[in-house]
């Protein structure tokens, strides 16, 4: 499986990092970070291909490069607005616009609070295009006792949406 992971400049960059950290072996990760997202953590032991957000000529900017799924975690309101309105002015927005035109699996995790009507409209627009709009929302039904547990729950829900096997949280009824 091949996945493009984009990390944009909003609170919760750590969630993007951990999303990659918990991925099972065998998934090929292509990582784009916007200049506003500072990825501090290195991904030891993982074979990750990293791209500059300005590298609009890279292979993931093309629909001919085969990718199984895309995740924007976290997704700033800026990037959300661009994606929802067809703007493709950097590698993150270009890669996602390609994914949408190719009808591929896309998940975005918008992070803002409260949400403006503009952001809500943008999310609705993308949801209607089959983009999975999945903000990091706390879950209280999975025995979460710490921030770490809560993050595992949220990331597990994202993996569920993308068809990635995991045991990050205990499912209801299990
Ligand atoms: C400390 C800090 C926290 C921020 N948190 C958020 C946030 O949670 N959500 C958001 O949409 N923007 C947030 N922003 C604003 C974005 O970084 C800003 O809109 C930026 O233009 C996003 O660019 P990008 O989409 O290219 O990453 C934050 C900015 C700073 C400096």
Q: How many distinct helices?
A: 5
User: Can you name the CATH architecture?
Assistant: 3-Layer(aba) Sandwich
Intertermini distance: 27 Å
CATH homology-level superfamily:
Flavin prenyltransferase-like
CATH class membership: Alpha Beta
Average pLDDT works out at 92
Kindly state the percentage of residues in helix: 25-40%
Secondary structural class: alpha/beta
Spatial strand arrangement across the major sheet: 3-2-1-4-5-6
CATH-defined topology: Rossmann fold
Uncertain segments are none
Helix and strand topology:
Layout: E1 2-7, H1 13-21, E2 28-33, E3 48-52, E4 69-75, H2 77-84, H3 91-101, E5 105-110, H4 117-128, E6 132-133, H5 147-162
Parallel strand pairs: 1-2, 1-4, 2-3, 4-5, 5-6
Helix pairs in contact: 2-4
The structure holds flavin mononucleotide.
Flavin mononucleotide is lined by residues 8-11, 34, 36-37, 76-79, 111-112.
